[in-house]
Recover the amino acids of this structure.
């Protein structure tokens, strides 16, 4: 379900691409330091967006440099408290997602990966109890709704929205309500986009899909209206934040990147229809 909140890289200039990859590499580096090399398999660009958003809002002191890894011989990284926060949330999400897959489908590979992420989880939960509890509760509720074959897509979408809302709020302050509302709308978009993209495969294999459960046939035009409404609400709250640093990258992600990734996944599923984001 994750991986939709990505940049449209060809539309970023060289400096912006370097900055974006530096934050992503910073998160990867933090995950390796707090957990292990294997845990980096759970790395998600969604958390690079999260870190960039909070960095732009709070403008913390930052450390930067270059480091080598197996994939990139020499690459820039950025490090600060919000990069570390993004890494923590990445590990926590990966753990609960793997455990959900294991409990629901008995995947041994998911349990093995959960064991990898679990090494760092107690410390992460101690640092961020509200966020970790929200992840655990929301994933459990999503699993329950899916098992009950919930016919109202608003319920699981709102549940995932609540999860994202809590993640965007690193600390309770004057911006927490705006961030929470933004995250709730973004989470709704992610969940409904994933449901739309997976509709054919879920129907074919008789897996839960909120649109299929409500008796709906394939209707991309209607689904895209749901997505436009969700992202309209998300960007409305986003534009209320006093962002300057890295705003061009964040704009690229929210106004272009997410739609590009959505279209890419449509194509992967054999759907040729394009989404309008006008």
């Amino acid at each position: 379900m994750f991986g939709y909140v990505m940049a449209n890289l060809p539309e970023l200039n060289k400096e912006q691409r370097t900055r974006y990859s530096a934050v992503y590499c910073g998160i990867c580096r933090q995950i390796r330091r707090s957990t292990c090399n294997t845990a980096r398999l759970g790395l998600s660009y969604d958390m690079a967006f999260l870190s960039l958003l909070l960095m732009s809002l709070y403008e913390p002191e930052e450390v930067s440099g270059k480091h080598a890894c197996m994939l990139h011989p020499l690459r820039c990284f950025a490090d600060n408290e919000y990069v570390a926060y993004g890494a923590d949330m990445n590990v926590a999400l990966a753990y609960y997602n793997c455990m959900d897959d294991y409990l629901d489908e008995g995947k041994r590979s998911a349990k093995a990966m959960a064991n990898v992420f679990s090494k760092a989880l107690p410390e992460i939960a101690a640092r961020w109890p509200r966020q970790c509890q929200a992840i655990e509760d929301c994933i459990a509720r999503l699993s329950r709704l899916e098992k009950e074959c919930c016919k109202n897509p608003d319920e699981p979408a709102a549940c995932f929205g609540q999860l994202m809302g809590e993640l965007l709020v690193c600390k309770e302050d004057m911006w927490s309500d705006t961030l929470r509302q933004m995250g709730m709308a973004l989470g709704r978009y992610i969940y409904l986009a994933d449901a739309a993209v997976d509709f054919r495969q879920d129907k074919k294999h008789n897996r839960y899909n909120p649109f299929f459960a409500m008796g709906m046939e394939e209707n991309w035009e209607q689904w895209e209206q749901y997505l436009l409404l969700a992202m309209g609400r998300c960007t409305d709250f986003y534009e209320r934040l006093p962002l300057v640093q890295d705003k061009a990258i964040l704009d690229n992600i929210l106004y272009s990147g997410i739609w590009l990734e959505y279209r890419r996944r449509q194509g992967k599923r054999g759907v040729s229809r394009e989404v309008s984001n006008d």
